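Quick one, tokens below. Sequence please?
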């Protein structure tokens, strides 16, 4: 089994503590890069900018007059420096407010599908609030795991087949990345494949069934998942031999809700006990009620 993931996914948040004045997208629609998504209240910022621009104009004229006076000996160098400093301070404030003004427009960082919005016009937001989520699903990842036993196989650039749980359509993807370590809990190796998704049929978060031909996997022994007994070192099963239940440690590989691949511990022809496991005692006698082949 594997999972579909968006190539790019980002939670859209705002950087300011301000009210939303407008929302400029439709949920579930495609938006281009830099598309305006949310507009925040900017009236106070615009008013401050207007005031500072008037102050800057006055400061420029004052500096110009003082320079004329200085050239005629009617003003000191200190007065010129003070006028110049005041002009620079005003200009710095304007640059700062223009930066803040830019943050009142929240835009899409890349082209993609915008999800459900979690806020409405008039809502007061802050940087901790997720406004919506943007997904790039023009291509998608397929993340899946294989047993440790096959970790030495050269799988990079291998083509895999997969199907979704909602359709029998067969898709193909190319393995582009292999995790450099074995998961210590599942004893599996994570792989990632990528495929195009121009028709947007593959939805991030979906489960998929991956078909990857490695060695003699088709000849493996499979047992029902419900007969697995978790242990400190992995799993075991009860094998019925001459009417006696024997607990046998096994190594498993691929697994889904119905069955699990057995890599070692069992042989073809072994009889596995699948029900009433909590009532069985290792070495105890077992009465067979039903046999499933």
């Amino acid at each position: 089994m594997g999972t579909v993931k968006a190539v790019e996914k980002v939670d859209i948040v705002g950087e300011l503590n301000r009210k939303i004045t407008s929302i400029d997208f439709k949920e579930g629609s495609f938006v281009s890069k830099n598309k305006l998504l949310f507009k925040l209240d900017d009236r106070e910022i615009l008013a401050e900018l207007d005031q500072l621009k008037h102050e800057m104009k006055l400061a420029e004229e004052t500096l110009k007059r003082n320079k004329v006076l200085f050239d005629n000996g009617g003003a000191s160098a200190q007065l010129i420096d003070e006028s110049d400093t005041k002009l620079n301070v005003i200009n710095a404030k304007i640059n700062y407010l223009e930066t803040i003004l830019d943050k009142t427009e929240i835009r899409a960082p890349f082209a993609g599908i915008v999800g459900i919005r979690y806020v409405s016009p008039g809502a007061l937001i802050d940087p901790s609030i997720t406004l919506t989520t943007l997904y790039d699903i023009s291509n998608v990842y397929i993340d899946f795991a294989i047993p440790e036993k096959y970790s030495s196989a050269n799988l990079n650039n291998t083509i895999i087949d997969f199907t979704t749980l909602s359709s029998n359509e067969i898709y193909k993807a190319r393995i582009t990345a292999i995790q450099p370590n074995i998961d210590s809990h599942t004893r599996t190796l994570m792989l990632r494949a990528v495929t195009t998704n121009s028709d947007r049929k593959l939805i991030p978060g979906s489960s998929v069934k991956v078909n990857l031909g490695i060695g003699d996997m088709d000849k493996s022994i499979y047992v029902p998942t419900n007969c697995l007994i978790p242990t400190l070192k992995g799993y075991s099963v009860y094998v019925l031999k001459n009417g006696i239940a024997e607990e046998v440690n096994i190594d498993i590989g691929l697994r889904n809700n119905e069955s699990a691949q057995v890599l070692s511990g069992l042989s073809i022809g072994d009889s596995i006990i699948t029900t009433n496991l909590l009532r069985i005692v290792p070495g105890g006698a077992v009465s067979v009620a039903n046999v499933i082949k």
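The longest strand covers residues 130-147. The chain is about 20% helix and 40% strand.
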